[in-house]
Amino acid sequence: MTDKIAPSPVVADAADLNELLGLADKPESLGRQAWNRFRRHKLAIVGSAMLLFLVASFWIGEFLSPYEIGETNVIDRKQGPSLSHPFGTDALGRDYFVRAMYGGQFSIRIALLTAVLATTLGTLVGAVSGYFAGWVDAVSNFVINVLLSVPLILVLIIFGREYGASPTAIAFLIAAISWTRAGRLVRAQVLQLKESEFVQAARAAGAGPGRIIFRHLLPNLVGTLLVEITLLAGTAIILESTLSFLGLGVQAPATTLGTLIDESAGNIDTAPWEVLIPGAIVTLIILSFNFIGDALRDALDPKSDSE
What we know:
single chain; mainly alpha; MetI-like fold; 0% strand
């Protein structure tokens, strides 16, 4: 008597086979995972929405107003916020809403240009320093330590008096002394990554230092650099406002939010809106950048499970 062999289960189709093997769902890419974590971050949504609203207002708001940036009307001078003048008017009767929107444009430009320039310079110095080490690392560390030992605001005052006439000059000035943090971050990361297997493999394949740095090391630091850009943008807004408040920032006819605060500082008792409105806008911009930076840090961290 022979035993009957039980028939083996038959897989109906490829979908059933994938389900059996645990391959029903395609694994998410690292970028997709980071985006999902960023979307779930409540402060990321608040910061992004607030920054987009402010930037859109800066570039669209002045076209929605019937008043020109330099239009004066002595009859309407020093009026408080009203329907005809949402942010009131200044001592010359100029519409303060238009001036605030115009100043916001320059402040955002300075912040972003400064952040990009400082991050780029810091990345190059940090990458070269960390990869080559030795005397190159010693020299770059010496320069960084010297810059960190000098009071930042003092340097801005000294050079701002001579070179702070235009928004571009202010951006270059702030970037020239604020790249050190990015440099240290990139140097530390490169020191860790340059001994990794993929770098050793590239070196064994004949890749030179330039190719290794730009094709293998820096792409792994994109997350760190994105966070640094957002933090530097907020810092640049503060420094530009401080410099303008001291009367050493952007000069007329250009206007920034810091310039508006400086011009109206003496009117805090009689026309407080002239100081509070640009001050509140500066605060919202800084908060937006910081919220986005914190969210990016959490989203780009694979170990993060931030909601």
